[in-house]
Every structure is written in structure tokens, then in C-alpha cells.
């Protein structure tokens, strides 16, 4: 069932009655009626003559799933870039790019060749601009790291953008700036179409809401997209520092509705870097420092963090602070305690045991990405030796009283909440033994984190729902990952509906 540009048809607002479905995971069998975008009746119901009736005996109707951390434009563009994730060395990365280019017309008119997904945290030799030049002389090439914290540029591209760099591998803010500059080569209307297609794919996996942390003027971008086509999920459009003053001048606050399903999101700050790039800021030194930075990079000190969080929170914008290393998390927790505001900590990948209880402060969401725990387990073992018992510590955080919310960090991981749920519960995504199983969490807690705390369906709730053929509580690790989605609804409208 598709509409223009391949988007799912958003059906009309006629009442919908689900008959004989299980109400939530492990719940009773009942009927549910939706009207005006909300759940209006639950019980033994007789559908109205104009209702769209779905009869799926034994299927499970759950609250819709939330992806609490995506980068919308990079997620959409990544689907069209050369994929180099499987490369195990710089040379193999360059060969994958060269092989892909042999299958397409040669770049013309200053076209930039974009690749995505290099992971150098386990490589024995580092990437370098000369490798790109030797294999692809004169070609403008940009290779974005899988963690989005580094970008590897060819000499031709460095020359075009006016940068002189020893290795061609730019990290952190330099990476963000260059990536943002290159993104403007793509017409906005094309990016918008790609983003809407990507969100439609997310709806097909049961996602009804995202928090968008793209480094962009997200308010403007999402309002434009809403004018071009039906947005198939709710969007919390984050605010970055370059757009903070304008947001405050407009009087906009986190949670304000901008247009239908689009609302103002949190104010994004970045305290440190990432694990794979070895820029996550840690109390203990890395065994293999990058550029002499033994503890990683602190990108914003505690005093500046407190100052910016204070300005934002006083103006109704909840801070969302990226913190991956344990020292960055300590500093970020200090800042939340000093400012006294609500908000989010994004990632929390390495946490000292004495800091875990501090995540339980009221109004603080700990936004985590369980797929990263599986994709980065070997990198963590190498670069955080002796500390991985407190890496991706979902069990410790949950036991300490933290409020967890799951996300993918797309395009770092695919926006598939069922993989995130399985990774959090089983701590392995293949036939390897579970990694630090003591940090696994129960399935009901994982489902709660994947639905942003909406564990039940009650009369009056917004009809943001997902219909599943099976109850997740009974599924194995592999079956959770491949669980089909029969239907997804946002505000009572179908954003995905499998063929009957």
C-alpha cells in the first residue's frame, strides 16, 4: 500500500476497531476502538458501520516504538553512499570505493564521492589522505566514519574546501563542519524526499516517534518536509547552538508543537567524542592514544556546559548532552546537578559505578543505543581494557533507578527497535557468547525503554500503536529481531499496514 514517492498511504480518519487482540505484551485479549486520533474504548466492542475493522485474533497491540536518537539527513543520505563497513583496513576501504566507482559513471563537474562506515578502532594502520589519492588520483572523496565523529578526505577535496591537513582525517567539530558543508551540495528537496522515505521504512518497523539530532536548522527543515508530504511519525526537532538564540527569540520551548506531528526537541550539546575515534573523554588513559590525547577529548568544559544549560533551561529548552566516556559522564552529571534542570544524557557508554546512582535524578532521561554495545564490543575490549564491566551498563543504570530510552543513533545503527531490544536483553547479536551478561536487562524493561515509558494502552491515549503477530514476551533472541509488524498507527492513522 503506497502513495506518492513510495510513501505509505495515510488512510483517512475513519474509526478503527481492533478485534480480539492482546492488549500489550502479556496482557488480556480484548477489542480496542480508535477515533479522532485517540483510543476511545477498550472491551467487548461492536464496531460501528463506518469502522475499519482489523480482526487479528491473538495479535498483540502495543504502544508505538520510539527511536530516541537519529540524525535524519545523514541517515537518509547514508542509504545512497558507498558502504565500507566491512573493510578491515584503510587499503580495503579504498578498494571498496574504487570497486564501486568502476560500476558507475566517472565523477564529473566537481562531484564528491561519498562513502560511509569506516571503523578504524581495530585497524593496525591509520587511514591517510595519500591512500585515497594513490587509488583515485584527483577524485574528491569523503569517507564518513561509522560513528560520525571522523571524516577522511582526499587531497582533491581538501583543496576544494580550503583545508590543509596532515592526514586528511578530521575529527569532532572539524568533522561536523565539513560534513555540514558537503551536505549543502545536495538540493534540500532531494534530501527531504530521502528523509521521508527513510522515515517510512522506520514506520514499517513499528516506530511512531523520533528525536532528530541532525546538525542542522531542524525546525525549518521539518516544517518544510511537512509541507511536501505526510510525515509518517512524530518528530522532536532538536536545537543546536548555532540556532539557539533564534529559537529563544521566537519563544519556542521543548515540547511546543510546530505543525501537526512536529515539535520542538531538546537543546543538543556535545561533551566529548566517541569510542571508535578514541575521543570519548575518560578518567583512565587509552592504551593507544590518538594525536597524543591520552584521555580522549573534552569538547566543552564543565563551566561552559553549566552556562549553556542554564541559558537553555531558563528559556524552556531541555538540554540533551552527548557523553560517552566515563569522565564526560561525570562532568555532565555535575552540570545537571548544578543547574537543577531536567533533560537527557545521550549514550552513557562508560559509567563509573559511583556515578550510576546519579542517573536516577528526577526528570533525567538516559538515552542509550543497545546496538552499539554489540557492534563496539571488540573496540571496547581493546581501548577500554579492564573497564568493560561498566561499559554500556544498562543493567547497572536500571538497578540504580535511571530512566532508559532506546534509540539507534541512525545512521550509526539501523533504526530497528527490535534489534535494540534483543541486544539489551541478550547482549549478543550472533552466535558469540553474551558480552557482560550482568549488564543485560529484562524484556519488560527493554520494551518500556523502547516505548519511552508507555507500557500500557488506556482510554484517552494518543493512538500511536503497533500491531504484532506475536507477543514479544515469548520470543527468542533471533525471533525478536525478525518480528514482523502488521500495522503502525500515528494519531490514529496508518503509517504502515502489511498486506492482508
UniProtKB/TrEMBL annotation:
It comes from the Bacteria. Residues 58-495 form the Amidohydrolase domain. One of its GO terms (molecular function) is hydrolase activity, acting on carbon-nitrogen (but not peptide) bonds. This is Amidohydrolase 3 domain-containing protein.
Amino acid at each position: 500500500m503506497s502513495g506518492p514517492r513510495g510513501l505509505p498511504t495515510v488512510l483517512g480518519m475513519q474509526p478503527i476497531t481492533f478485534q480480539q487482540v492482546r492488549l500489550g505484551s502479556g496482557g488480556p485479549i480484548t477489542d480496542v476502538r480508535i477515533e479522532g486520533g485517540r483510543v476511545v474504548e477498550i472491551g467487548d466492542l461492536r464496531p460501528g458501520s463506518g469502522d475499519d475493522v482489523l480482526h487479528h485474533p491473538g495479535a498483540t497491540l502495543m504502544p508505538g516504538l520510539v527511536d530516541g536518537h537519529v540524525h535524519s539527513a545523514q541517515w537518509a543520505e547514508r542509504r545512497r553512499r558507498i558502504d565500507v563497513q566491512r573493510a578491515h583496513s584503510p587499503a580495503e576501504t579504498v578498494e571498496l570505493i574504487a570497486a564501486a566507482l568502476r560500476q558507475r559513471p566517472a565523477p564529473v563537474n566537481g562531484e564528491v564521492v561519498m562513502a560511509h562506515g569506516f571503523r578504524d578502532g581495530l585497524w593496525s594502520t591509520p587511514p591517510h589522505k595519500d591512500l585515497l589519492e594513490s587509488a583515485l588520483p584527483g577524485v574528491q572523496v569523503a569517507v564518513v566514519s561509522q560513528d560520525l565523529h571522523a571524516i577522511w578526505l582526499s587531497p582533491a577535496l581538501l583543496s576544494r574546501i580550503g583545508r590543509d591537513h596532515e592526514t586528511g582525517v578530521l575529527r569532532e567539530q572539524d568533522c561536523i563542519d565539513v560534513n555540514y558543508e558537503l551536505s549543502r551540495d545536495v538540493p534540500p528537496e532531494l534530501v527531504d524526499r530521502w528523509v521521508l522515505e527513510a522515515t517510512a521504512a522506520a514506520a514499517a518497523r513499528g516506530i511512531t516517534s523520533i528525536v532528530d539530532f541532525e546538525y542542522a536548522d531542524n525546525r525549518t527543515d521539518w516544517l518544510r518536509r511537512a509541507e511536501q508530504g505526510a510525515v509518517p511519525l512524530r518528530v522532536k526537532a532538536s536545537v543546536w547552538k548555532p540556532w539557539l538564540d533564534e529559537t529563544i527569540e521566537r519563544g519556542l520551548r521543548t515540547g511546543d508543537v510546530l505543525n501537526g506531528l512536529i515539535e520542538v526537541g531538546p537543546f543538543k550539546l556535545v561533551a566529548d567524542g566517541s569510542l571508535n575515534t578514541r575521543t570519548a573523554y575518560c578518567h583512565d588513559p587509552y592504551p593507544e592514544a590518538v594525536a597524543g590525547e591520552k584521555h580522549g577529548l573534552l569538547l566543552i568544559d564543565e563551566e561552559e556546559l553549566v552556562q549553556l544549560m542554564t541559558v537553555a533551561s531558563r528559556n524552556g529548552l531541555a538540554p540533551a548532552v552527548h557523553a560517552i566516556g566515563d569522565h564526560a559522564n561525570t562532568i555532565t552529571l555535575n552540570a545537571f546537578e548544578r543547574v537543577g534542570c531536567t533533560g537527557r544524557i545521550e549514550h552513557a557508554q562508560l559509567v563509573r559505578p559511583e556515578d550510576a546512582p546519579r542517573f536516577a535524578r528526577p526528570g533525567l532521561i538516559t538515552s542509550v543505543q543497545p546496538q552499539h554495545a554489540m557492534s563496539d564490543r571488540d573496540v571496547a575490549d581493546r581501548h577500554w581494557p579492564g573497564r568493560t564491566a561498566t561499559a554500556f551498563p544498562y543493567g547497572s543504570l536500571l538497578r540504580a533507578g535511571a530512566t532508559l530510552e532506546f534509540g539507534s543513533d541512525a545512521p550509526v545503527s539501523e533504526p530497528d527497535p527490535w534489534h535494540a531490544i534483543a541486544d539489551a536483553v541478550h547482549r549478543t547479536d550472533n552466535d558469540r557468547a553474551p558480552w557482560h551478561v550482568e549488564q543485560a536487562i529484562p524484556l519488560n524493561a527493554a520494551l518500556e525503554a523502547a516505548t519511552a515509558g508507555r507500557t500500557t494502552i488506556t482510554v484517552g491515549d494518543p493512538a500511536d500503536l503497533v500491531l504484532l503477530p506475536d507477543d514479544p514476551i515469548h520470543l527468542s533472541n533471533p525471533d525478536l529481531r525478525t518480528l514482523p509488524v502488521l500495522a503502525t498507527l500515528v494519531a490514529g492513522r496508518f503509517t504502515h499496514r502489511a498486506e492482508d
